[in-house]
Design brief:
The structure holds 2 protein chains of 2 kinds.
Chain A: E1 2-11, E2 14-23, H1 48-52, E3 68-74, E4 80-86, H2 88-91, E5 96-101, E6 120-121, E7 127-133, H3 136-143, E8 147-152, H4 159-163, E9 176-184, H5 187-192, E10 196-204, E11 216-222, E12 225-230, H6 235-246, E13 253-256, H7 272-284, E14 288-291, H8 294-300, E15 307-316, E16 319-332, H9 342-346, E17 352-361, H10 375-393, H11 397-402, E18 416-417, H12 422-433, E19 443-444, E20 451-461, E21 470-475, E22 481-484, H13 494-506, E23 513-516, H14 533-560, E24 568-570, E25 573-576, E26 579-582, H15 583-586, E27 595-600, E28 608-609, E29 612-623, E30 628-639, H16 646-665, E31 696-701, H17 725-737, H18 748-757
Parallel strand pairs in A: 3-14, 12-13, 16-17, 18-28, 22-23, 30-31
Antiparallel strand pairs in A: 1-2, 3-7, 4-6, 4-8, 5-7, 9-17, 10-15, 11-12, 11-14, 15-16, 19-20, 20-29, 21-22, 21-27, 24-25, 25-26, 29-30
Chain B: E1 5-8, H1 12-18, E2 23-26, H2 32-37, E3 45-48, E4 58-61, E5 65-69, H3 74-78, H4 81-86, H5 88-95, H6 100-105, H7 108-112, H8 163-168, E6 173-178, E7 181-186, E8 209-215, H9 217-220, E9 223-229, E10 240-249, E11 252-261, H10 271-277, H11 284-294, H12 307-324
Parallel strand pairs in B: 1-3, 2-3
Antiparallel strand pairs in B: 4-5, 5-8, 6-7, 6-8, 9-10, 10-11
Helix pairs in contact in B: 10-11, 11-12
The chains are: A alpha+beta, B alpha+beta.
Chain lengths: 759, 325
């Protein structure tokens, strides 16, 4: 039976009510302590061998007969009007097939605009034209031959300069836009009644995703059917984008993403490269590949906004009484902001809060979601300020947090949490790191002159998942099964956990399950972002497997002539009193029978808030004479419901911590103010951590299923490990040095400058 | 990358004749290919030197010093225990240079002749002075990695090589060979004096090939140490590096050399700083004084002031390490 339900869903800090269509009935979650044979146990990734042997096909690997190559001409100016484009010299180059630009490209709806080639280009790297040619080299050479007449306009690239009234206004409504405001309690009164008020300005730098597989697409038309291979976190989102841009029916678009080399939030929908590939492919009657190079990736494919944040915090009688948090984010040209004040509003039970977020436009590449967008930046400012207050009040910073961490309701919505084990995270982490060693002013380091410090920070995030998501399970007559669901594995292990849940529920071995994902010809599944995937898709898979199992039992009851209630499926066999019949045997006389199980994701509970919690603890050593920060150890503890696979979960946390350490210590997009050029567009200048920079990472989970959340009891883990690590490291560095560096990343330069200033 | 002709030379004379205007010499290619892909170098002909015999490996004849062939892969020097005993500073410098993959491909000659890493210079769209433009974009721009000392009007680049300061500290010379004959210059003189306002970073002339590095016997008698500050633990050019070397006896350092990388357009050495060290009973105060003299002319830009205390600290540590060894 199909019905429409209302459900609440939180995505990247935004709570929304929506309608969803569901089918069938739910089952209760596997309870805490349930004895499960496959779920909860470590398994190697089912696609692991294909990946390490190079057989796994990524979008970049797609090679089609007669395929042409597209390259994009990008603006050399941070702001300019495109007055004229002359492609004639490019078209004269042998091997060049076509040039698209604003004067000849068809109108295409693209993210609120009606063209992919703007009249006013707004950052160095903005798309101006595209060339299709027989080879990538010819297309590249042709870019230099496209003559563009620009009228250069005044620009601003720096966040704080853009805020300044003296800077050029690059948007009709000004550069600074109100984005979000939350107020509770009586902030003014709370500040006047406080024992101690602490105030600080915190800055974070623009972080670039640097997915190893850059953004890209390959498009091919077969008659009026468009097939697009795209490195994406949302095959259905790409399909919707193509429908809007090209006015095609869904039935004439197929989007595929078999494997993908990282997205981290930046591959949430179509890119201009997708539209370019599709337009050229239609015009030229050949497959067209358009993938970005590393420079383009770091200039025009999204980023985590730089922020400047002012936090004023006060305490009274050993408690936090009020927080005021103002935050400005450099969004480039984006029309949204990743609100950094989310943790300030919801992490701690503090009675008086004023949080305001502002969106600042500049002539730089726009933000896109980046693994817990806003929360990573905001947690750094909030948790630094809390440590400063704790130090000022002479209270242990962990003890201070505990006093505000026990609330069972969300301070914003006032609704109860489905489950909250934040205090357990504190207990586990404090024990593991040896928090009792922490001393105000830090500890002596391992060599003369070195200082050692401990710090911690908490994590709040959503991760409850959402409908709609649908799965089918095809059970073959030999007892093997195929799960089909239109999700995608963005490198997190989604295939493996889907197989585990299916095998567990169906009663067959993990290796007998094949998982078909990354295809819009499969049932719908949501975007793999916002830590949504596991909690959205695995409950639907479980119901589909259950449906298949029940049909199998119907068949078995007839074939074996045993009461259905006496049958169960276990290890690939139907077990009846005193007998074990392999599934293949059950179907022996029923040649070519396919059992099709269907399942859908049921709505989230009406009356509960689904959140994930965690805490990171950092131990660092700092050399005050060279400014070098060495992270010795990170203890990462997370409360995300049931852990479906401890191995993929641990990998997820390690990856998040490493990416957060880059944000904390070395990663920073540098843009030249005068020219608007990104100076750190290569992997040599933009410093992601190397394996030598990775400390010991201890991963622990509370691992209590959230049985109110969904029938698997699992929540998302994609973003939580990215959130608190930088704040924990910054607090540890401040503890070690007795001086706080309020600007990430904590490069030797910033540490030395802060020590010299004695701030 | 622009199309180019590729020729593999089999002798120095042949390579020299091929290296006409518009040609570029290639050994490991780790720098040249980056320059070509970035549009900074667009040679019409690439002359591959790797087919030339006799320029690989190192040897030492007692009394005649150490000879290192210019085509020797960096990794061969780094992993030789024998060389590590003879001239330990080489392993120290190479262990923190680039990455293992780059050290496998990169050669000694290429390392000494690599172009600077200034992010304005390396961006083809920026018409900086070094590329024939009129001004240095770093002077008023993003200059945290730039020079603090020894700059002349026009360019604030820094010398990037890890090997160069280490070898200069041991008085290395290089042989520059061409079809017309060979000449030998000090390694320090391979780097163009910024005061000359030349847009060439190296003094090697067209048609010349760096064939050999020679460390004289006197250089081998010094104890050396190399320290490098970076923004991550590996695969990073130095924010500041220091190579120090001296003969050590009776608590005194003599014949000292202190050479900084990452702070000036050339490996930075000041004779007066070494005079503060030579012959004086070594102490931390002596080391500090030497560091002060070495950086007495430092004039940092807006964002690289941190390099001054950092360089002084590394000088102190390097000298202390030599004295204590």
């Amino acid at each position: 039976m199909t019905r429409v339900v209302r459900t609440r869903n939180e995505f990247e800090g935004e709570v929304m009510e929506q309608l969803a269509l569901v089918q069938g009935e739910d089952v209760p979650a596997w309870p805490e302590g349930a004895e499960l044979g496959i779920v909860g146990h470590a398994h190697r990734r089912i696609e692991g061998a294909a990946k390490v042997t190079g057989r796994a096909r990524y979008t970049h690997d797609v090679q089609l007969p007669g395929m042409l190559h597209a390259r994009v001409l990008r603006s050399p100016h941070p702001r300019a009007r495109v007055r004229h484009v002359d492609p004639s010299r490019a078209l004269a180059l042998p091997g060049v097939r076509s040039v698209l630009h604003r004067f000849n490209a068809p109108k295409t709806a693209f993210r609120g605009e009606d063209t992919i080639f703007r009249e006013e280009v707004r950052f160095v790297g903005d798309e101006v034209a595209a060339v299709a040619a027989d080879t990538e080299e010819i297309a590249d050479a042709a870019l230099d031959l496209v003559a563009v007449d620009y009228e250069v306009l005044p620009h601003v690239v720096d966040l704080e300069e853009a805020i300044d009234d003296a800077s050029p206004r690059i948007d009709e409504k000004g550069n600074v836009h109100d984005a979000d405001r939350h107020e509770r309690g009586d902030v003014k009164k709370a500040f006047s009644n406080a024992d101690l008020v602490v105030e600080g300005t915190y800055r974070t730098s623009t972080q670039l995703h640097n997915s190893l597989e850059t953004h890209g697409a390959v498009a091919v038309w077969d008659g009026d059917l468009l097939t697009v291979y795209e490195s994406t976190q949302h095959v259905f989102g790409v399909r919707a984008g193509l429908q809007a841009a090209l006015h095609l029916p869904f039935g004439k678009i197929r989007v595929l993403c078999e494997h993908m080399g990282g997205g981290f939030g930046s591959k949430g929908g179509i890119g201009k490269y997708t539209v370019i590939a599709a337009l050229f492919a239609r015009e030229l009657g050949a497959p067209v590949r358009c993938v970005l190079d590393r420079r383009e990736e770091n200039v025009a494919a999204g980023n985590r906004s730089a922020t400047v944040q002012r936090v004023k915090i006060a305490g009274r009688e050993g408690r936090i009484t009020v927080i005021a948090h103002d935050s400005w984010s450099n969004v480039g040209q984006a029309r949204w902001v990743a609100d950094p004040t989310g943790p300030t509003k919801g992490l701690y039970d503090v009675p008086n809060v004023l949080a305001r977020a502002y969106r600042v436009v500049t002539n730089t590449g726009s933000l896109s979601a980046f693994r817990a967008p806003g929360y990573v930046e905001g947690t750094f400012a909030l948790e630094s300020a809390i440590d400063e207050l704790a130090d000022g009040m002479g209270v242990d910073p962990l003890a201070l947090r505990r006093r505000h961490a026990e609330a069972v309701s969300d301070p914003v919505s006032k609704m109860r949490y489905s489950l909250k084990r934040l205090v357990d995270c504190y207990d586990i982490g404090a024990e593991e790191i040896g928090w009792s060693r922490r001393k105000r002013g830090g500890l002596r380091g391992s060599a003369p002159g070195l200082r050692r410090g401990l710090g911690m920070a908490s994590q709040l995030w959503s991760g409850g998942g959402t409908p709609p998501a649908y799965a089918t399970v095809h059970l073959n007559p030999d007892g093997t099964a195929v799960v089909r669901i239109g999700t995608q594995d963005i490198g997190t292990g989604t295939r493996t956990v889907i197989a585990q849940v299916c095998a567990e529920e169906l009663g067959i071995a993990l290796h007998d399950v094949r998982v078909e994902i990354g295809d819009t010809d499969s049932p719908y599944a949501p975007i793999s972002a916002g830590s949504l995937t596991v909690a959205s898709v695995t409950p639907a898979v479980r119901l589909a497997a259950k449906d298949a199992r029940e049909q199998l039992l119907d068949v078995a009851a007839g074939v074996l002539e045993v009461g259905r209630a006496e049958l169960r499926v276990e290890n690939g066999a139907v077990v009846s009193p005193g007998a074990r019949t392999p599934i293949a045997k059950v179907f022996e006389d029923l040649a070519n029978y396919t059992v099709i199980g269907k399942g859908s994701r049921m709505p989230n509970p009406d009356d509960l808030v689904l959140k994930t919690f965690g805490a990171h603890f950092a131990e660092v050593e700092v050399d005050p004479a060279t400014g070098v920060v060495s992270v010795d150890r990170i203890v990462a503890v997370h409360d995300v419901g049931r852990i479906i696979d401890p191995l993929t979960a641990r990998s997820q946390v390690e990856g998040g911590v490493i990416q957060a350490l880059g944000f904390a210590l070395s990663e920073e997009r540098v843009v030249d103010r005068a020219t608007g050029r990104v100076l750190t567009a290569s992997l040599e200048t933009y410093k992601v951590p190397t394996v030598r920079d990775v400390p010991r990472i201890v991963v622990r989970f509370v691992d209590v299923p959230d049985t109110a959340a969904n029938n698997v009891g699992a929540k998302g883990l994609g973003e939580p490990p990215m959130i608190p690590a930088a704040a924990a490291v910054a607090n540890a560095v401040a503890n070690a040095l007795g001086v706080r560096v309020r600007h990430l990343p904590l490069t030797p330069r910033r540490v030395l400058d802060a020590l010299a200033a004695g701030s | 990358m622009k199309p180019f002709a590729y020729v593999r030379a089999t002798s120095v004379a042949e390579a020299s004749r091929l290296l006409t205007a518009g040609s570029a010499a290639m050994a490991g290619g780790t720098d040249l290919l980056g320059l070509m892909k970035g549009g900074i170098a667009s040679p019409s002909r690439v002359v591959d030197l790797t087919g030339i015999d006799g320029l690989r490996g190192w040897s030492r004849e007692r009394g005649a010093g150490l000879r290192i062939g210019a085509l020797t892969p960096l990794v061969d020097l780094e992993t030789s225990d024998q060389l590590a005993r003879l001239l330990p500073i080489v392993r120290q410098a190479l262990a923190v240079a680039a990455t293992l993959q780059l050290r496998n491909a990169g050669t000694v000659g290429g390392n000494l002749l690599q172009r600077n890493r200034c992010w304005y210079f390396r961006d083809e769209a920026v018409p900086c002075w070094l590329k024939g433009g009129t001004r240095c974009f770093a002077a008023e721009g993003e200059n945290e990695h730039h020079a603090i000392v020894g700059t002349a009007r026009g360019c604030n680049r820094v010398a990037p090589s890890d090997l160069a300061p280490a070898l200069i500290a041991h008085d290395a010379r290089v042989t520059l060979a061409s079809a017309r004959g060979n000449r030998s210059v000090t390694l320090a003189d391979l780097f163009t004096d910024p005061a000359l306002h030349s847009r060439e970073e190296h003094t090697i002339k067209r048609g010349e090939i760096l064939t050999e590095v020679h460390v004289p016997e006197s250089g081998l008698q010094r104890r050396g140490a190399y320290l490098k500050a970076m923004e991550r633990k590996t695969w990073s050019f130095a924010t500041v590096s220091v190579a120090a070397a001296a003969r050590v006896r009776d608590g005194k350092l003599r014949d000292s050399r202190v050479v900084l990388g990452g702070v000036a357009p050339v490996p930075w050495r000041v004779a007066a700083a070494e005079a503060e060290i030579d012959g004086h009973p070594f102490s931390d105060a002596v080391a500090r004084r030497a560091a002060d003299v070495l950086l007495a002319d430092a004039a940092p830009l807006a964002k690289n002031g941190y390099k001054v205390p950092l360089a002084k600290e590394l000088v102190r540590r390097a000298l202390a390490r030599i004295a204590a060894a």
